[in-house]
Amino acid sequence: MKISGFTFIRNGIQLRYPFIESIQSILPVCDEMVIAVGNSDDGTREAIEKLHSEKIKIIDTVWNESLRNGGKILAQQTNIAFDFISGDWGFYLQGDEVIHENDLQRISDAAKKYLNDHSVDGLLLKWLHFFGSYNYIAKPFSRGAYPYEVRLIRNSKEIRSYRDAQGFRKFSEDKPDAARPLRVKKIDATVYHYGKVRGPADEFERAKSFNRLWHDDEWIQNFSKGKNEFDYVCKFPLEKFSGSHPAVMKERIEKSNWNFIPKKKDIQIPFKYRMLNSLQSITGLRPFEFRNYVVV
Asked: Can you state the angle between helices 200-211 and 217-224, rounded to 10 degrees?
């Protein structure tokens, strides 16, 4: 069995993505690591080269700035990297996603277990969404923060990154416009998603850059007008994180964690989400949830 890691990144240093830690976190279980490196001007490519790993294969890309609609450029870059992998499985992480070393053996064992079961398209992992700082997470299974997503996929070119690259769908040649959810197995492993932990000024710059993948310049100007810090408003409850971070994150957390204290006024849970959270707490059901997968 061969596992190929794959990802994409552009200006990861400038935007303070833990992309090096993300790569390092899965290298031990990967036979190769394919990275689509977009045209960066901050030393991102050089930082990857300094890892000095023979497993890493860099694909240089130039981002199409005209794809400013729905984050399509992210799916395009994901697919570029995916198309270069040679393994039985593709292990995908984005630049702010990290795997804990304690989960690597379980992931490898699951990949072996389902290697020859072609009714399984991928493996489904749990998520921890960090918000504000490295000390707080979205309360697990709350609406507004997805609890699971697929991160290991079979190396089938029928599988493509979908929409804004959060997940994957399956396409067939006879029905190229019909996207089917992947058939997946849920495994006991977790993605640590360090999405909004940079601090007010740096998070604001990341948000501006990220929103350019969705909106035109006029929208960005309105978004930025009169502001220079990120508004830490969220639509899910927060709780203190009491577990251990992946070891590869130790240095970054020690250097860049900040004293984020959630404010009650910034927890703005929509009425719909409050109702659905209550329903789930009573019944265990999660109706009306968007999913890129079907658990088999």
From this structure: 160
